[in-house]
Specification:
The chain is mostly helical and 39 residues long. The protein has two helices and no strands.
Length: 39
Amino acid sequence: MNPGGYIGEATRREIAYANALGKPITYFHELALRDSRLR
């Protein structure tokens, strides 16, 4: 959950870890899709 598009550091690390494992990540908020730090 990312109210207002905010993603905290812990969640950001979890997303990076899942990404490194090749796990699919689904974003439900448009701002998260534009956040280059998540890629």
